[in-house]
Amino acid sequence: MHRLKGKPFTATAGGASHRRATRIALAAAAASALVLSASACGGGGSDDNGKDKKTSSPTASASGSAAGGGENLQLPDLHGQKLEVAAVWTGPEQKNFQKVLDEFDKRTGAKSTFVPTGDSQSTFLGTKIQGGAPPDVAFLAQNGVLHQFADKGWIKPLGPAAQAELQKNFSKGWQDLGAWKGKQYGIYAKVSNKSMIWYNTAAFSNAGATEPKTWDDFLKTAETVFDSGTAPVSIGGADGWTLTDWFENIYLSQAGPEKYDQLAAHKIKWTDPSVKDALTTLGQLFSKTDLIAGGTKGALGTDFPKSVTQTFTGNPPAAAMVYEADFVSAFISANTKAKVGTDAKEFAFPAVGSGKAPVVSGGDVAVALKDTPAAQALLTFIASTDAAKIWAQGGGYLSPNKSLDFAAYPDDVQRSIAQSLIGAGDDFRFDMSDQAPAAFGGTKGEGEWKDLQDFLAKPSDVAGAQAKLEADAAKAYGG
Amino acid sequence: MAPASVADATAGAGGGGSAAVPSPPGSGRPRPRRGITATRPWVAALFLLPALILLGALVAYPIIYTVKRSLYDADGSGFVGLKNFGTVFSDHGILTAVRNNVIWVVVAPAVATALGLVFAVLTERVRWGTAFKLVVFMPMAISMLAAGIIFRLVYEQDPSQGVANAVVVAVHDTFTDNAAYPGARPRPNSDLKPTAGGSFTSASAAASGTAADLPLVGIPANKVPKGAADAKPAAPEPGKVTGTVWLDFRPGGTGKPGVIDPGEKALSGVKVQAVKDGKVVASAKSGKDGTYSLPAKAVGAQLRLPGSNFSGKYEGINWLGPTLVTPSIIVSYVWMWAGFAMVLIAAGLAGVPRELMEQARVDGANEWQVFRRITVPLLAPVLVVVTVTLMINVLKIFDLVYIIAPGNTQQDANVLALQLYLSSFGGGDDQGVGSAIGVILLLLVLPVMVFNIRRLRKEGRR
User: Where does the signal sequence lie (chain A) (predicted)?
Assistant: First the structure.
């Protein structure tokens, strides 16, 4: 006990100089943040950012922190400090993020550990917080949880250094998503482009199919692929969230962004005619069991990982196309022999009706659960281009960081996804189910997940699905 | 009476206990007998104290807190009275959980005990009984979680992964003919239109002289029989209806729809029927080169490809579908706990006096009568213990259901303990309702517990 207690004590005593360095660094960063926001008010645009970089770098180097290490990013010395980071990632996603943490540890001397939260994230964190032992930094997978936690005072606003990095590197749309009631809480450091369909190039060339641009073309392509003897579409129906993503893309394209925002806030009901149209459109695919790998029962028994692997293994594969976000590429690389870019390619989610092709995105927002220098330093690092670069090199990662050089992405596929995301500017829409209360949009076997699974099982019953969705939504949104 | 005196003793123990204990060695030596009787309640209290503190902190306090918590709202700040219990009994999902719990409590212990009894009685007479017992008992060594994962895989829909469906499909396929080309069909906009029973019927009437070709698509390259010949146009035969059945697809989509392009494969063994006014007048099977020929009767008839050509592969039983999910999970539970029942019953069986059985046999009773009239009645106390233990165990079943039931049927498989978890932590985030369910579970377990304790006491008195 004594030794344990003594250690941190000597560390702080000996680390007085580090402390000072931290403070100087923070002050410098805060100053540059002021310059930044002033210039942003003046006119904004990437040109100004470029200038800021030039002006801020001399100040930063003048403050001369020993721990800084790379480029113009200032991080405090955190020797002897322990840091816990929680996020939903497992497998390759976790390994990839570990590299970022390792770099952070190297630069600051902190000792950070990663804790996977499992699927029920708000519960995991909620019990930890109420138990008085929250992790220092958490990545929240759902936007609604950010609001919920902010209202309860469980998460702390970003410090000046982190805010400076955020404003330097992120567009307004992404900044606003991490803010709540006028305060900036989070950084959307890892995002996904959920509007793409991946396909097996061998299956496509065998069938003589081409990348479709519209929903009607997509269905025709599916028929063409069926003719070749390969099941066209793989649906991971055992995981309800893949179905909500299908719906959101169709809805955003068909009903438009305004309706999308209204439905996301539950300002219009799920019994709205626009929902009926979207479900009917989705039913055009779901009701043709020929077009679904394994038929309806097979789809309901297929979880997301299997829906990807079965599309890219075997000859002929079990399916030719699979819908999901950009992170599919990491899964393909890790779990199949297929090569992204040659064996596996993607096309943008087709436009439905007269609408534009949708860009639905999701993401994990980094927030501090403890207001410590270490937590703030990690957030600063996460918002930086340095971190994004390390993260991007591992693949399966997409950053909304506009300062990140596209060259950092490991392959052309990932690069083009990133380009389309950054190119969409602020026209993207955030995943609707992730904005909803967890009981509706984020719980296995309940709410939207379950209702859309029932719809997949019985696509003819559009009205019934709508009624169930509305009933569950009303309950979860609280009337 | 007894609990009250213990409580009194506990109240006093805190002050006097420490002083009373060291005194006997010093002063009590001359009159040991009186010393012991005098300090007895203190000593008893002292020895009880650790257990009481532990029980109080780990059992009594949580129960009281849960009861209190069940009367408050989701935040735990506002008193809502019995509203949470109202929610429990009006929520459709929770009612399903109650119904499933009843099924569990009735079926699972009964089946597990019955199987255990059968195993115990039979293994007594087998030479390799011990080995058999070991195997049956083995699942007990596996955690519920692992057992859940095992059975999740056993019940997998895909016969190549789930062993249950592998067996079902293998048996099914042995007794029924498989379709030649499951899942195949004509192009949607061709002359052949889908008709009843998964068959396809041509819109136009067949004529002799011109070949009535029947193009099919949707057959994977590796499902076309090896060595299938290239399709050939059928030679017209006078007075007969002829044509070709072939796979109207060339890699790369280079073939023309409805035309026999070079390199397109013939489909042999496809049944072709000629139908007039709903009656089959003639039928034929396509040959090696895909051609078929129907007699003169077929002229003017519609051509039909019956559904038996394409009927989808038998997919097996949907074990984890809405209707079967609870029975399936109960089976996995029985797999785990039948061994437990067997071991306890076998132990009871060892204590049954053999003479009675011998006597019955001498009197001319057959084995069934011995089992029914002698063994079971003598084993009744053990059977009751096993059943009641399993009942208590089953009331709190959670892990198996949580792991085995997939997302879309989780609600169909719901049980109270799972609903407790879901309501309080898994998305519901309402620990008020969760606590209410906890209280209800407690009330359900209580009568069984009381019964068990009473029975134990009776046993002790005997």
Answer: 1-40
